[in-house]
């Protein structure tokens, strides 16, 4: 049996859930979110920039967010481009502080809000097929216990993350600007205090960050090239720990605390985007449209902005709202371009190790036309 729905959102991460909530705030459309994971899992991506609270406010979530125990982050401390620490703070930022997220709690809150505004959130449900039937898109879902359903949505929102599950099947192509890897460790803070600032430090191998998380947790990560990361992981990650201990900012900060650490984990970090983020009856949001370098800490923020623009675009296309004064694809492109420029400027500002492979490979280069 084929069920009709107005909008199917593939992926219940921040981008997908925010699009669904935004759509229900603007329209009476029936919105289904299909999310593979049964419940939110611990994930990396834990700093929320100050502007994101305004986006959450528009989803009716600012008060709940403030009550959810995320830690406010007053700013950053960095050793970048020179040996002396520099500071950036949000003290005078009218948008308020940044936040260290409990990512699981954050996504649980988004799911609850989506259900509250009438979104049909189907968890443990993977989108597995797509096709055409009488000129309409059909999408096959595999739910809990392997139950299969077919939907015939008027609109599909691809919010499936960097895999762009739906967009790639519509012929969109992913252009990758950079591939890195993050080698991360989560740890419980057993004794001592760690700064509330996000600490960032460039080294010849790449760059490190460390930040406090809710629940007396600390995340420490090295973002590096894949080959270098593999070397550091050998022998149980001994060299990762040695390089961390030798850093001039993070090493001393961590020497003051006692941690109970978990094993090191690796996550790919890709800077990439689709060659087109919309097509007939579909659009892509968040990482599915474009993935960012975590150095700028704006992946979730920009995903929330994509979501707001996507909701307006679909509302207008279905006659449920006025036409926005911009094109969706231009907005996504402008945000990615802004990220690219910020990222290039950051990497260009670190000139201490021009012969090191990591830095030599990241001398800013012209943007390839897509
Ligand atoms: C190491 C690292 C550190 C980062 N640090 C930060 C940070 O500090 N701050 C920040 O803002 N951002 C950070 N990011 C980026 C941030 O995590 C992402 O930008 C953000 O998660 C994007 O949200 P999204 O909803 O687009 O995608 P995702 O969060 O990836 O959600 C996609 C969802 O789609 C689901 N899905 C995929 N395929 C299917 C399918 N076929 N059917 C059903 N469901 C499917 C997945 O289960 C997933 O839940 C970091 C990323 C990395 C890798």
TrEMBL record:
Q: What range(s) does the FAD-binding domain occupy? A: 5-318
The highest taxon in the source lineage is Bacteria
InterPro entries the record matches:
FAD-bd, FAD/NAD-bd_sf, Flavin-dep_Halogenase_NPB
Name the family. Answer: Belongs to the flavin-dependent halogenase family. Bacterial tryptophan halogenase subfamily.
Q: What name does the UniProt record give this protein?
A: Tryptophan 7-halogenase
């Amino acid at each position: 049996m084929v069920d009709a729905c107005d909008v199917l959102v593939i992926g219940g991460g921040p981008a997908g859930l925010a699009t669904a909530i935004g759509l229900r705030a603007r329209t009476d459309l029936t919105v289904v979110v299909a999310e593979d994971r049964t419940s939110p899992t611990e994930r990396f991506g834990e700093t929320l920039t100050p502007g994101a609270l305004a986006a959450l406010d528009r989803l009716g979530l600012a008060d709940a967010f403030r009550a959810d125990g995320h830690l406010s982050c007053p700013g950053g401390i960095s050793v970048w481009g020179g040996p002396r620490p520099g500071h950036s703070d949000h003290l005078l930022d009218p948008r308020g502080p940044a936040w260290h997220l409990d990512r699981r709690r954050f996504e649980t809150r988004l799911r609850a809000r989506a259900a509250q505004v009438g979104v049909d959130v189907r968890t443990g449900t993977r989108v597995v097929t797509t096709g055409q039937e009488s000129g309409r898109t059909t999408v096959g879902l595999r739910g809990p216990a392997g139950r299969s359903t077919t939907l015939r949505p008027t609109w599909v929102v691809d919010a499936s993350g960097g895999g762009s599950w739906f967009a790639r099947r519509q012929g969109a192509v992913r252009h990758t600007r950079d591939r890195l890897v993050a080698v991360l460790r989560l740890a419980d803070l057993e004794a001592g205090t760690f700064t509330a600032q996000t600490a960032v430090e460039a080294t010849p191998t790449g760059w490190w960050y460390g930040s406090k998380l809710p629940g007396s947790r600390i995340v420490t990560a090295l973002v590096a090239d894949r080959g270098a990361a593999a070397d550091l992981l050998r022998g149980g990650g001994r060299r990762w720990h040695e390089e961390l201990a030798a850093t001039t900012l993070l090493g001393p900060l961590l020497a003051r605390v006692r941690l109970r650490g978990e094993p090191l984990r690796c996550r790919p970090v890709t800077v990439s985007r689709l060659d087109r983020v919309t097509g007939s009856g579909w659009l892509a949001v968040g990482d599915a449209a474009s993935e960012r370098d975590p150095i700028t800490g704006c992946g979730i923020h920009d995903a929330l902005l994509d979501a707001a623009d996507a909701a307006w675009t679909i509302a207008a296309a279905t006659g449920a709202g006025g036409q926005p004064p911009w094109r969706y694809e231009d907005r996504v492109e402008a945000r990615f371009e802004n990220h690219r420029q910020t990222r290039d400027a950051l990497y260009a500002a670190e000139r201490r190790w021009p012969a090191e492979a990591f830095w030599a490979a990241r001398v800013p280069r012209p943007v390839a036309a897509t």
